[in-house]
Amino acid sequence: MRADRLISILLLLQNNERMTTRELAKELEVTERTIHRDMEALSAAGIPVLAERGKFGGWRLLEKYRTNLTGLKADEIKTLLLSPSFQHLADLGISDDWKEARQKLLAAIPAPMKDDVKDISNRIHIDTGTWRQTPREMKSFGIVQQAVWEERMLQIQYEKADKQTSDRIVEPLGLVAKGNTWYLIAASDEKIKSYRVSRIVDAELMNENFSRPSDFDLADYWLKSKQTFISTLPKFEVDVEMSPTIIQRINFTGRFVQVIHMDNPKDNGWIPASLCFDTEQEAREYILGFGNQIKIVRPVSLRKSVRGMAEGVVNLYSENER
């Protein structure tokens, strides 16, 4: 509805110093022409909306203008009360603050809505941990957080995958939680990189501050970085024929194999499919685990190596039975 959109524009302008027509249109998923019509409507209603031209221009509200917008809907309040990851809150040291803020928000909810929203944490719970949690050691997490908030240069000792360490001076831009793993996003040598926090062996705050790039968007950077990382992952594709008895297990264990596609069953009931693994060794061990329920079609080299492994297993147990 237009009324909801006009309120959204007011909230966006109150929470941001200024926004361009394009930014507002993208945020509200409408055309730029619609935004211009909405601005005319706000001005006609007496809202002091100003348009500034130039490279750093955009729409803004008159300085010190604030409006007390009420009328939050029950569904909107529910989104605010959804429980985030308690592990992440604990990592950041703000779990108690979150609980207190939640209680204050509940106290401010109009009485008719309380019964609809107060029990949401007992209906939806978000757990970002794994089933078998690996103990994580993040000795310098507190210092890293402080550097992010205060925009201070940070000297870190970072451990690479080969266990070698190196000293680096970085400009910490933000923190990202991927599952239960934290990453520091920081600029170094005019490049923005990701550092796993658990690999930061030591960190020391420097007295020097830095200026954040005005166009840096943490969520956008992480999305692009993740897509780039995924595109560089190794791939080993295999054409197979599978017994229908294992199809459910194949689909269930998506963590180990990606099913690219499946064809219609052949006359014997077996199903042709294309599978994707990270490495040939992973493919070999995975397929061998299904015994005579998966037949490798291509590549021929994998078929030969799996047969060799199977023969080795048979010989091992044959020797033990002599």
DSSP summary: helix tally: 12
| Residue share in helix | 40-55%
Strand content: 15-25%
Helix vs. strand class: alpha+beta
Number of strands: 11
Distance between the termini: 81 Å
Question: In what order do the strands lie side by side in the largest sheet?
Answer: 6-5-4-3-7
Rg of Cα set: 28 Å
Compressed to H and E, one letter per element, the order equals HHHEEHHHHHEEEEEHEHEEHEH
How confident is the prediction overall: mean pLDDT?
Answer: 85
Low-confidence stretches: none
Shape: extended
- Give a quick account of the main beta sheet: strands, pairing sense, barrel closure: 5 strands, antiparallel
In words, what does this structure look like?
About 40% of the residues lie in helices and about 25% in strands. α2 (about 20-30) crosses α3. A hairpin with a 5-residue loop joins β3 and β4. The chain contains twelve helices and eleven strands. Strands 6-5-4-3-7 form a five-stranded antiparallel sheet, with helices on one face. With about 325 residues, it is an alpha+beta fold. It has helices at about 1-15, 20-30, 30-45, 75-80, 85-90, 95-110, 110-115, 140-150, 220-230, 245-250, 280-290, 300-320, and strands at about 50, 60, 150-160, 165-180, 180-190, 190-195, 200-210, 235-240, 260, 270-275, 295-300. The longest helix has 21 residues, at about 300-320.
Outline the secondary-structure elements.
Layout (H helix, E strand, L loop, with lengths): L1 H14 L5 H8 L3 H13 L4 E4 L5 E4 L12 H8 L4 H7 L2 H14 L2 H7 L23 H10 L1 E8 L5 E14 L2 E8 L2 E6 L3 E10 L8 H15 L3 E7 L4 H6 L5 E5 L8 E7 L2 H9 L5 E5 L1 H21 L2
Helix pairs in contact: 2-3, 11-12
